[in-house]
Structures are given as structure tokens and as C-alpha cells.
Design a protein that fits this description.
The chain has 410 residues and is α/β, with parallel strands linked by helices. The chain has 13 helices and nine strands.
């Protein structure tokens, strides 16, 4: 962390820093209208379409103010009276991806322009897949055995700043000793995520999870989300979002809880990410990603026995007032959510051409539904591959979350 006061700045001619603190602070407090007037006074033209930050940059440039170093104070540091806290440099934001899986979140964030420096996951197959697709490494580790201090010592030898922490702690919890409430996040992997937040103090975090986490309760009747937010709100301004991936150019109606936090000393209140696709009718239909029927291997088609089983189950469930049990895709709409269990029978999303021609989705189609590129390598057996795809954060969804974070921190 760097601290600058007036004396240090005025004397630091060797580094060519010549900032007038008082003038800089006055400019930063100006409204956009006042900044436009200032630009007019200085003879700066073509600036009406600029945002506030861009206007300040133009004024500083006109006044020949050398761009200042980017300074962020940690939560423990109190800014001296004459200290200026400089805005975040979003050009080189480093990310750690906890519970990274095969790399869906990392793929999207990388495409958005963020610098993912490492991933961590407990499943060796997922880590193998991840490492086949990135120059940086994912590490196979149990987070309960990999505290952030140890991670930093082993895998962050260049001591890079961690600007953003992302990840989706699994709903399942762990128990160290004795009987513990399995739904209490204080006993869960969630607390390992919090340890990384407390240690690295990133500028922002993204936490992804299922919608069901919002309605979970502990054995004592406490709302799980309240316990989670109590931890996250200590040092971060947070917002809880319920978002459809299909609103972010993903051909899948996958709804997720996305908690976004911005460190409090940055004085930024996060807002809900705006959907890229504004209308339900404009969501990407599953037909856009399906392989032509004649190119699909026969092994994906359901046998006569399986078809009969579906019809029988349909009749039984109808009598009992239950759901169908097998979901047929509407070609003109996004896919149903692809879960990790899809490998079992594929009944969560079936392609139906007619009553006799019904098939499961291929690996390529499953990847496309999660917005992975076709050439993205996923290791393991078919079961392993499908589980990794189902567990992943959709890449395009992550891409827009990454863009949102970059724009929010500007």
C-alpha cells in the first residue's frame, strides 16, 4: 500500500509527479455540468459526450498534470489529513477463482479483459481441464487445507495484488468435530471464501450460487443468507442479484444468485447488472446451437425401452399430479438448466424431433449451452465431462459480470 501526502508529492520530482492536491480534489467534486464549463474555459472541445471521469482526465491533461500513481488504502489504514485516495486502475485487475471447476468463470473474466492469476478446486479432473486451457495454473487443493497464507506462499511468489475474488462455494458444508448444522454457512466452505477475502482484501468479489441458497434455513431457524451477508457486509458494500444467464446471451434459462461486493473504502455502491437482452422474446433459442440431426451419433437417441419408460412415467405422474419427469426442449426458446446430473439419463433437456426420435444433448451441444467454445478442452470420461459442464458458470454470463466489475470500479 502507498501513502502520499502533500510534502511527498511536491518533493518527488525524481518520479515526475507534480500534482496540486487542492485543485485535483476541487475538480473531482465538480458536477458534470461544472466540468463541461471548465472544459469550455480551457478551450477543450468535443467533450459533451464524455463522462465525468473522462472530463477530469481532459482537464488534467490540459493543465499538464502528470497522471498520478494508483493508490488504494486497505481497511486498516486511515488516510492522513492530506492524503489523496486515487481511483482504481482497471487496466490490470488480478483475479483468483476459488472453486474454479473446469474454468467457465475464468474463461468469461479473461475474455472481459481481467487477469486471472490462479484457480483452485478440489476435483482433480476439473483442474486437469482448467490447465489445458490457460497459461496460468489452477491448483488441486482442499480449501480447508489451503489457507490464503499458504496459497500466497506457494502459488503467488511474485506477490501480485489480488484485486478481485470470485467463486461459488458449494452448498454442502463440512464438519470438523461433533455434530454441526449442515446448513449453517459458518461451518461450511463459505467461511474459507471469507478467509481469502479477509486476507487479500480485494477491491471486489463475485460470489455465485444456486437460487435455493436464498431460502435455506439453519436448524435454529436462521436464514442462511442473513448469516452469509453478515460476514460479507463487514468490509464490503454488497448487492444480492437473482439473474438469468439467458439475459446475458447464454442459450439457457439458468437462474443464479450472484452476490457482488465492492470494498467499502472505495465508496462505490454496486448496482444490479443490467440485462444485455431486454426482452424474453429476444433470448437466444436452443435451436441456434443444435447440431444438424443427420450429424448426431445414434448413441444419443433413446431406445424403445427408454421411450416406453418415459411414457409410463408420464402417465403415472399425471395420475399423481406430478410433473412430467422428462423435459423436451422448445427449439425456439433457451434450454432448460443443464445440471451436473445430466450424465445419468439426460431427461432434464431432451431434443424431440417426433414421438420416436428423441435424443440427449451431445457434449458439444452441452458446451455451447454453457457458452463454452467448441475447442474448449474438458478432460475425463463422459460422466466427468458432463458433470464439469453442469457445475460451471456459463462463460458468456461470466464475461458480462467481468465487464460489469470493470465498469463499476472505474
Amino acid at each position: 500500500m502507498i501513502e502520499l501526502n502533500k510534502k511527498l508529492i511536491s518533493n518527488n520530482t525524481e518520479n515526475n509527479i507534480t500534482i496540486n492536491i487542492t485543485e485535483q480534489m476541487d475538480i473531482s467534486k465538480m458536477s458534470k455540468l461544472e466540468l463541461l464549463e471548465k472544459c469550455k474555459e480551457l478551450g477543450i472541445t468535443k467533450c459533451s459526450s464524455k463522462n465525468k471521469s473522462q472530463l477530469i482526465e481532459l482537464i488534467n491533461s490540459k493543465n499538464k498534470v502528470v497522471e498520478e500513481p494508483k493508490i488504494i488504502l486497505s481497511n486498516e489504514e486511515i488516510a492522513p489529513e492530506n492524503t489523496q485516495i486515487i481511483e482504481v486502475d482497471t487496466k490490470t485487475l488480478n483475479v483468483i477463482d476459488l472453486f474454479c471447476g473446469c474454468g467457465g468463470m475464468s474463461k468469461g473474466l479473461t475474455d472481459a479483459g481481467l487477469n486471472v492469476i490462479a484457480g483452485i478446486d478440489i476435483w482433480d479432473k476439473a483442474v486437469e481441464s482448467y490447465n489445458k486451457n490457460y497459461h496460468h495454473k489452477a491448483y488441486c487443493a482442499d480449501l480447508t487445507q489451503m489457507p490464503p497464507e499458504k496459497f500466497n506462499e506457494l502459488y503467488n511468489k511474485e506477490n501480485k495484488n489480488v484485486d478481485i475474488l470470485v467463486g461459488g462455494p458449494p452448498c454442502q458444508s463440512f464438519s470438523i468435530a461433533g455434530k454441526r448444522d449442515k446448513n449453517d454457512p459458518r461451518n461450511a466452505l463459505f467461511m474459507e471464501y471469507v478467509k481469502y477475502l479477509d486476507y487479500f482484501k480485494p477491491k471486489a468479489f463475485i460470489m455465485e450460487n444456486v437460487i435455493g441458497m436464498l431460502s435455506k434455513k439453519t436448524a435454529n431457524g436462521e436464514n442462511v443468507i442473513d448469516i452469509i451477508m453478515e460476514q460479507l457486509n463487514r468490509n464490503y458494500n454488497c448487492i444480492i442479484n437473482k439473474l438469468y444467464a439467458s439475459d446475458f446471451e447464454v442459450p439457457q434459462n439458468r437462474r443464479r444468485t450472484i452476490i457482488i461486493g465492492i470494498r467499502k473504502d472505495l465508496n462505490i455502491l454496486p448496482k444490479e447488472p443490467e440485462p444485455i437482452i431486454k426482452s424474453v422474446q429476444d433470448r437466444i433459442p436452443v435451436k441456434n446451437i443444435l447440431i444438424p440431426k443427420e450429424e448426431v451419433d445414434k448413441k444419443y437417441y433413446l431406445s424403445e425401452k427408454a421411450l416406453a419408460g418415459i411414457e409410463n412415467k408420464k402417465s403415472v405422474n399425471k395420475e399423481k399430479g406430478f410433473g412430467f419427469g422428462a423435459q423436451m426442449l422448445d427449439f425456439d426458446k433457451p434450454s432448460y438448466t443443464i445440471p451436473a446430473r445430466y450424465w445419468k439419463d439426460g431427461y432434464d433437456a431432451l431434443v424431440k424431433y417426433n414421438e420416436k426420435d428423441i435424443r440427449r444433448l451431445t457434449i458439444t451441444e452441452l458446451k455451447r449451452i454453457q457458452s463454452f467454445p467448441d475447442n474448449y478442452i474438458i478432460a475425463g470420461s463422459n460422466k466427468d465431462i458432463i458433470m464439469q459442464i453442469g457445475n460451471a458458470v456459463a462463460c458468456k454470463f461470466a464475461y458480462y459480470l467481468g465487464k460489469y466489475i470493470i465498469n463499476t470500479l472505474r
